[in-house]
Write a structure and sequence with these properties.
The chain is mainly alpha-helical. It has helices at 2-21, 32-40, 46-59, 66-112, 124-136, 142-150, 156-178. The longest helix is centred in the middle third of the chain and has 47 residues, at 66-112. The protein is globular and about 50 Å long.
Length: 182
């Protein structure tokens, strides 16, 4: 049953990515002007499109999320941009976590022919602190943290809370500085 959920999540992400590939050139995702024009072109659906693209950027590496934060800051200002970016990044982080939780461990264990034990003896408190701190610093890859956390014994709820509160400060700063590009 758990594996089924992992497969379903992977299929959903692939379908969304392929559907959006028709509307968005993901090779241009690091071009802030392109992002701004594309999202504005969707009018009132722009925030929803942005949230979906942000979620995909977290799940599908190596799509960068930093230019998305900056472009959102230009489009909506720092407060709404932070809100939309955090919603999208949280959704993406949870999907990546669940994919790793439901598919990753068994696939890696089968490939290595042994059990993997990533921080199995770490307390939830320790894992929450690690995730929270990693989210505060942009040089830790968001997707790696999300997938890695899915391989630990941390609960989804605690992972989601640490991720949510840990990403807000830097997301706000990137959205705020987005205006400085123009």
């Amino acid at each position: 049953k758990a594996r089924t959920w992992g497969v379903i999540l992977v299929i959903i992400v692939i379908v969304l990515f392929l559907a959006l590939k028709e509307a968005i050139d993901f090779s241009q995702i690091d071009n802030i002007n392109y992002i701004i024009e594309t999202i504005r072109g969707f009018g009132m659906l722009g925030p929803l499109l942005f949230i979906i693209v942000m979620a995909i950027a977290i799940v599908v590496s190596p799509i960068p999320s930093l230019p998305l934060d900056a472009a959102a800051g230009v489009i909506w200002g720092p407060y709404l941009a932070t809100l939309y970016a955090v919603i999208g990044a949280e959704i993406g982080a949870i999907i990546a976590f669940l994919i790793a939780r439901h598919l990753g461990r068994s696939l890696i264990e089968k490939a290595l022919h042994k059990d993997i034990n990533i921080c199995n003896h770490c307390s939830d408190k320790t894992l929450v602190a690690i995730i929270f701190i990693a989210r505060l610093f942009p040089f830790f890859q968001f997707d790696v943290i999300s997938y890695g956390a899915g391989l630990t014994n941390i609960s989804l709820k605690k992972f989601a809370i640490a991720t949510f509160f840990g990403m807000i400060p830097m997301t706000f700063i990137f959205a705020l500085t987005g205006k400085s590009f123009f």
